Amino acid sequence: MDVIITGAPVSSEIINRAKRLKMIQTTSVGYDRIDVDTAAANGIIICNVAEANANSVAELVFGLVLDVARRISAHDRLLRDGGWARYHIERQVEIRGSTLGIIGLGAIGSRVAQIGKSAFNMRILACDPYIIPDRAEQFGGKLVDMETLLKESDVVTMHTPLNEETRHLIGEREFSLMKPTAILINTSRGPVVDQKALIKALKQEKISGAGLDVFEIEPLEKDSPLRSLDNVVMTPHIGSTPGALSYMVEVAIDNVMRVVEGKEPFRIKTPDTYYTSEKW
After folding, report:
1. Residue 190: which of 226, 222, 155 has the closest Cα?
2. Which of 35, 78, 84, 201 might form a disulfide with 12, Cβ 3.0–4.6 angstroms?
3. Angle at which helices 72-80 and 54-70 pack, to 10 degrees?
4. Does 258 participate in catalysis according to the annotation?
5. Could you tell me the residue ranges of all domains in the chain?
6. Which among 233, 198, 227, 231 is positioned nearest to 212, based on CA atoms?
7. Is 218 a catalytic residue?
8. Looking at domain 54-234, which CATH architecture does it have?
9. CATH 3.40.50.720 corresponds to the domain 3-48+241-276
10. Catalytic residue among 75, 189, 216, 267
11. Which listed residue (218, 221, 250, 258) is catalytic?
């Protein structure tokens, strides 16, 4: 076995037993469920499908933004319960012309920037230590540090991979920097946000609300306080539509076929391994 195509976790045990393995190809953008260190130690590269679901996730981001900003789900529940009123009218805002802070300006973050700028004339701020200012400027945005982004943004949206550097990237200190009218969106990975700190911030109204597609533990616990908060909108990790999921598998297979044909694979997430491994 030279290549694994997977959307499931790949443990160190599996990697160590696969002596011929040279490449792990995910059918997802995230690869946090793969033991990266063990793969590197065995000269195995990891490839993902990068931009394949970028538009699908970006559309969900703005669905969540609009829902939280206009309290759409809250009003839906109110009507279903027989009510008729403007719910938390003081919290409802238009997002046109507001400031959008994007943490992680990869394929998905870039698509979010494009939509925010073209559809809603939003001011775009971005924080990403791995890009140059020109990247943000391509989308009419500005590259800033994290503190500036949190202080100035009306909407903060997460688009970082999950690793030791980004785990709990947003916690109590970060929530204290945000505007009380700000909205947090997370469609990346649950643990990039400290969920306990988020719940505290929502309860104390340190931020206006949150839109979440991912959680620290999935499925979300039945007794999670998030389920009872009226200033949070949640979806069960549905960032990719069925069409996007099919396309992600196609992209993964196409990349493996490149290797079969003796070509360099695309979207290598561990380039150091690729250039130093005897298997390549």
Report:
1. 226
2. 35
3. 60
4. no
5. 3-48+241-276, 54-234
6. 233
7. yes
8. 3-Layer(aba) Sandwich (3.40)
9. yes
10. 189
11. 218
